[in-house]
Amino acid sequence: METVAESAPPPGRATISDVARAAGVSVPTVSKVINGRDGVAPATSKRVLEVIESLGYESSLVARSLRRSRTDVIGILVTEFEPFSTELLKGISSAATGTGYELLAYAGLVSGETRPGWERRSLSRLAGTLIDGAIVVTPTTLMSSTSVPVVSIDPHTGPEGHAAIDSDNVGGARAATEHLIDLGHRRIAHIRGREDLASAELRETGYRESLAAAGIPFDPELVRVGGYQTALSAEVARALLTRSDRPTAVFAANDISALGVLEVAHELGLRVPEDLSVVGFDDVPLAANATPPLTTVAQPLHDLGAEAVHMLLNLLRGQDVPQHVQLPATLVVRASTGPAPTR
Fold first, then answer.
1. How far are the Cα atoms of 48, 69, 132, 162, 225 from residue 33, in angstroms, in the given order?
2. Helical segments of 214-321, H only
3. SS in 3 state form for 202-244?
4. What is the pLDDT of residues 1-25, one digit of tens each?
5. Cα–Cα distance between 164 and 323 in angstroms, integer?
6. What percent of the chain has pLDDT over 90?
7. Which residues lie across from 166 on neighbouring strands?
8. Which of 67, 136, 200, 336 reaches 20 to 30 Å from 292, CA-CA?
9. 262-267 long-range CB contacts below 8 Å, 24 or more apart?
């Protein structure tokens, strides 16, 4: 008969032997119940499960996965836990409830610097023994050949050769820029995202397309790289807003960058929106709580996370999924935008 090897537990932690003793059964019987094997009467199985619950017993995840060839755990790989990934996690958690899968969130940030290939290194540590599949947020490399099923959210290079989901970056950027144009703004700066991200390029594309459609010449001096970071965005915002021909509006590629613009505007004594209008992208909770509340393009972050779960579950079941799912992005108008000032 098979037994489950257990190392000496920390004080106060229940062992499989404790469960067997309390339930009045053998250790192999407890092992069968834990691993879902046949040969245990329903009443006995129910009693063992009740004891497991009451004692708080947890079998080794790694040992269990080696026996069953699965872990019932989905890995969520992010570079770091910041507002964007945190909102995605909320949607992922909600969608995973009741599926029988647990979640393991893993941050791949190394020494404060995102290194290309971090997700493959992370997957090599987790796949097989800890997770059955993974949702990877903004992966830096193609994820088409992995040891477990993977769904990417907003991949660096865009959807290529593997299951991926994102929002309409071009359409959202168009909506943001058109909103500013409709308010009478003509000198509209753009603080773009990271140069290695497809989403940043697409948002600049939407910005440029809106200017062209309105007959406004594109001025490369009004486009600066903020890298999706508060500090860098504040630095380039200061350079833009201290020009003699400063812009009257700024479209930032994400909310974190837009918040940096608001800080600089306040330091320079510029009123928002009377002197300067600011639009962000993402609609993280900080946007609505900013001073003034930030007009932004809302990505359906919870829906992105939830849809990624549904796609991954289908992959784990051996079902086909779309190579690319795109959700709409919607303009949310708040108090940080207003009519262009007259000079």
1. 7, 17, 21, 37, 57
2. 230-241, 255-267, 285-288, 301-316
3. HHHHHHHHHHHHCCCCCCHHHEEECCCCHHHHHHHHHHHHCCC
4. 333 333 344 445 677 888 889 999 9
5. 6
6. 60
7. 326
8. 200
9. 262/290, 262/291, 262/292, 262/294, 262/336, 263/230, 263/234, 264/234, 264/237, 264/238, 265/237, 265/241
Tokens of 325: 């799912």
SS3 label, residue 164: strand
**Mean per-residue pLDDT for 54-71?**
59
Rounded CA-CA distance 150/145 in Å is 9
Return the closest-CA partner of residue 309 out of 146, 100, 168. 100
| Cβ 259 vs Cβ 253: under 8 Å | no
- Cβ–Cβ under 8 Å, residues 340 and 183: yes
Sign of CA dihedral 157, 159, 160, 163: positive
Higher pLDDT, 232 or 61: 232
Look-up of token digits 């630095």: 235
Q: What is the DSSP string of 123-156?
A: HHHHBTTTBSEEEEES-SS--SS-SS-EEEES-T
The predicted-structure confidence for 45-58, as pLDDT tens digits, reads as follows 888 888 877 876 66
**Is beta strand 133-137 parallel, antiparallel or unpaired with respect to 73-78?**
parallel
Locate 193 and state its tokens: 């995202």
Residues in the chain: 343
| Residue 342, both tokens | 């007259």
This model's pTM is above 0.85 = no
Torsion, Cα 249 276 330 92, to 10 degrees, reads 110
Q: Which residues of 258-270 are buried (b: 16+ CB within 10 A; e: fewer)?
A: bbbbbbbbeeeeb
Taking the CA atoms of 310, 312, 317 and 322 in sequence, report the sign of the dihedral they define: positive
Q: How far apart are CA 34 and CA 187, in angstroms?
A: 65
d(CA 266, CA 270): 6
